[in-house]
Design a protein that fits this description.
heterodimer; A: 320 residues; two-stranded antiparallel ribbon; 3% strand; B: 75% helix
Chain lengths: 320, 348
Amino acid sequence: MREKYLPLIATITVFVALFAIGGLLYNNFLSTLVLGDILADNAFIIIAAIGTTFVIISGGIDLSIGSMIGFVGVVIANLDPLGWHPLASAALMLAFGLGFGALQGFIIEYCDIQPFIVTLAGLFLLRGACFMVNLDSVPIRHPFVAAFADASIPLPGGGFLASSAMVMLASLAAAIVIAHFTKFGTNVYAIGGDRASAGLMGVPIRRTMVSIYALGGLYSALGGVIYAFYTSSGYPLAGTGNELNAIASVVLGGTLLTGGIGMVGGTLFGGMILGLIATLINFNGSLNGAWIMICSGALLFLFIVLQRSLVGSLRSRSTA
Amino acid sequence: MATTTQAPLAAQLRSRWQSLASHRAIWPILALALIFTVDGVVSPGFFSIRIVEGRLFGNLIDILYRAMPTAIVALGMAVVIGTRGVDLSVGSIIAICGAVIAWRIHAGDPHALVLLEVLGVGLVCGLWNGFLVAVLDIQPIIATLILMVSGRGIGLMINLIYGGTNPSFISPLLQLLSVGHIGLIPARLILCAALFAALWLLIRRTALGLFLESVGGNARAASIAGVDARLIKFAAYLICGWCAAWAGVVLTADTHTSDPVSEGLYIELDAILAVVIGGGSLAGGRIYLGMTLLGALVIQTLTTSILTSGLPPEYNLVVKAVVVFAVLLLQSNNLRRDIGSAFRRSTS
C-alpha cells in the first residue's frame, strides 16, 4: 500500500521545494527562525485543520471552524476581567467545542441533513454569538497569557519553537494516535471509504459520526484557545474565513475530499505550505496580499488535479 | 362508538394536514407569515407604503430592494444545486466583475460595452468552474473553492493595474440598473424579474430543465439515457456565473466603487440558504426558481425585521441561524416521521 503515502510525499516535496526557493531568493530564509515563525503563526489554523481532517476523511465538511475560533477567543477575553483563570475558561471552551461539534454531528446524522448546510448554520450561530457577547476587541491581561505567549524552546540556528507550536505538535501527535492506532480511527476511514459497507461490517455509524464532529469541534476550540493566547485578546471578527484556510490545508495535505483517504500528518505540511506562501510574499515586500490569495488558489488547483489523476490511476489499476 | 367516528375524522385531518405540509411552498410562506406577524405587532407602521418624489417608500419595498442581489445570485445557484453541485465562488465572481467594471470604465469603453464585457467575465468564471467540475470531475465544493480563494485576489490585481486600490467610477447606465427607477418601480426589481422570466422559460419551456434535473437526480442514469452530463453541468455553471455577474453589476454600481475585499462577501452562503429555504435539496434533482426567490425574501425580511424591531443588529446572525436550523429540522424527513409516529401513538 505504497500509494497511500504518495499524496503525503507530494505535499512534503512541495513544502521542501518552496522552502528551497525561498532560500535561493532571500538571504537568511533557510533558517530555523523562519521555520519557527511559520509554525507559531499558523499553529491555530493547523490545529483546527487537524480536527477537520477527521471530518473530511469521513466524507463530511465543517464550515463552523472560523466562527468557533472567534467565539472561543471572545468568551475567554470576556471571562478574564471576571477573575477567571485563562486555563479554566479555556477548559470550559474546549468542553463547549466538544459539545457543539457533537450537536452538529447529531443533527447531521439524525435528521439526515447535509453537513455543509448544518455547519453553515453553525457558522452563523457562533459568529452571531460573538457579536452578542461583545463588539469590541478585548485584551486578556492575565499574566499567565503573557507568560504563555513568551514561552519558547530555543532551536539550533537561532530559531524558537513557540509554545503555540508546541501545543500544535502535541495535538498532532494525539491525532495521529487516534487516526492510526485506535478502533475509532479505523472506523473513520471505513465510513469515509464506503459508508454502506462499513455499516454492514458492524461499524457503529451514527455514534462514530457524532464523535467525529465532536472531535472536530474540540480541535477548532483548541485552535481558538491558542489564537486567543497567542494574540492576548478576543476579537469578534477573529478567524473570519479561516474555515477555508483549514479546508485548504487539509486538501494540500493530501486528504481526498471524497473521503476515506488521507493522513493527519499531511495536514501539518498543508498548513505550513499556506504559511510559507504568505511568508515568501511578505519577504518580497513589493508584492501585496492579492498575490497570497492567487498563489494559494493556484496551488490548490494544482494539488486537486494531481490528486484526481492519482486516484484515477489507482482506480484503473484496481479494476484491471 | 366514539372511537369509530373519531378515527375517520382523525385520519381525514391527518391526510389534509399531510397534503398541506407536503406542499413545498408551505414552510417558507409560513416562515414569511410568522415574521410579518411579529413585525406587525412590534412595529405598527411596518407595512405602510407611501410615494415620495415619485418613488415608492416603505419597509416592504426596502425588503424587495435589498433582497435583489442575493435573489439574482440565488437563481443561478438554484440551477447549479439542481445538478447536485454548489458554487462557492459567486462572491468572488462579483468581486472580479466589480473590478472589471471600474477598470473598463476608466479605460474609456462605452458603458453598454462594459456591461457586455462584465457579463462575459461572469461567463468565463462559470466556464472555469464548469471545466473543473464537468471535465476534471472535481467535487463542486472544492472546485469552486479554488476561484473563491483566488477570485478576490484577482479583483485586487485588476484594480492595481491602473493604480487604485478601491477605484470609483460614474456610469449613468449601470447606476440606472442598480439604484435607478423605471416609473415607480426600482429598476433592479425589473432586472431580477426579467432574469427570473428568462431562466424560467429556459428551464421549464425547453428540454434543458429536464436535463439539468435528471443529471442532478441520477447522473449515471441520465448519461445512459443519452444526456451529455458534462455539457449540462457546464451549462449550469455558466448560468450561475452569468447571474453572479448581474449581481456584480447591481452591487458595484450601488456603491460606484470596486471593493474586491468586501464586495459580495458571504453572498454565496445567503444564496445557498435561499435555495435550501425554498425547498431545493443539496442532493440535487430539483430546481425551484420561484421558491428560491421566496427563500431570498425570507432571509432579507428577517434581516430588515431585526433592524426595524429595535433589536441590536448583533442579533441578526443568531436569529438567522436559529431560523435556518428550524427550517432544516422541519424539512427533515426523519424528524417528521418520528414526530408523526409519536403523534399517531398518542392518538391511537
